[in-house]
Amino acid sequence: MASKGSKKKDLASRTSAGQSGASVKAAPTSSQVGASNEKGRFPIWPEWNDADINAEKWDAGKAGKGQSAQFFDDPEGKIKLPASLKVHSWKRPQEFLAKQVPVIVQNETSFDLISANEHIFCSELMRWIVSEIYAVWRIYNEKSLTSEIPTLFWKPWEHIYALCKATSEHMPLYNKYGKYVLKLYWMGCWRKIIVDDAMPFSEEENLLLPATACQNELWPMLLSKALIKVANTSIHETGKRELEEFTVLHTLTGWIPEVIPLQPEYLDKVWDFLKEIVPEFKLPEEKTPELDIAQSDTKPEETKDPKLTNEVLPENKQPESPGRVESPDNIGKESPVPTHPEMVVYAGCIPLHLFEEDIFSLKQMADSSEKMRQYGLSHIHSHPVLITRTRSCPLVAPPQPPPVPCWKLIRPKKKTVVTSEPQEPELKKPEEHIEIASLFLNYKLNVIRIPTDIHFPKSTITKGFHSVSCLASITESDENGSDSNLDMNQNEKHSNAICSQETSPFCQKNAAIPSKELPENSRFDAKKVSETAHTDMENLRGDKVKETESEKTSVSRETWISFEDFCVCFQNLYVFHKPHTYAYNYQKTDFKFTDDQVIYYLLVDSLMPIEILVSFSALVHCDDTGGTKEECSSISNGVLTAERFCWKSVVPGEVVLKMHTAATKATMLNLPVGRHILLFTVSSPVGHHIHLCTMVPCVFGEEDAVMPALKNESCRFIELATAILKAVGNVINNFSSKDELSKALEELELAICPPGIHGTGMAQEHYKVFNKAFWYLFKYVVDKKTPYRYRLAFRSFTLDFEDIKISGDDPVFSECSGENLSSWQNQTPTSEELAAAVKIQAFWKGSYVRTVLKSRKPGTKENTTVEETLKKLWTVIELNFEQSAVMLLREMFKGNCKSIEKFPCYEDEWCKMSFADYAVTYGDHPANVWFVIFREIFMVPEDMVIVTKVYTTIPSCRLHVVDNDTLEEMPHVFFKVAPHVYPQNKKGYTFMAAAHTGDLPVAAGKWKLRLISSHHPLPVLSREAVKNAYSTRLYKGHYIPNKENVLFRYSVKVKAPHTVTVQVQTFKSDVLIKLQILDNEEEIKSVTGKGHAVIPVFNFLNNESPLSSHSRKTQAIQSSTNKDSEPVQLRKTTRNSFSKDSKTSSKLGLVPEDPPMLRDDSFPLESFENNVKSPQQPHRYMIQGLVLYDSSLPTEAQSLFVLELREEEKDEREGQDVANIPKASKKQKAGEKTEKSQRSDESQAFQERLRFINKCAVRDSEEPIAGIETADLTPSSGGRGKKAPQAATESRSQMQKKKWELIDLNPYMRKTKSESVLRNESIIQEQQIRKEEKINHFRELRKMALEQRQKEENDRALLKQNILEMYENLQASLDETRGRVHSIREAYRSNLLEAERRKQEELAAQEEALKAEKKKKNKPGKGEGKKK
Question: pTM for this structure?
Answer without folding.
Answer: 0.70
